[in-house]
Amino acid sequence: MNPTKILITCVLAIAFVMTSKANATIVEFQTSHGNMQVNLFDTTTPKTVENFLNYVNDLHYSNSVVHRVVPDFVIQGGGFTFTGDWPLTDIPANAAIQNEPIYSNVKGTIAMAKLGSSKDSATDQWFFNVANNSSNLDLQNGGFTVFGQIIGDGMTVLDAIAELGLCNNGNLQGIPMVNYSSEDCTNKTVPGIENFVVIEQIVIVDSSTATDANLSPAKNTLINKEPENNDSSGGAIAWLMLCLLPIIGRKLLK
Question: What pTM value is reported for the model?
Answer without folding.
Answer: 0.80
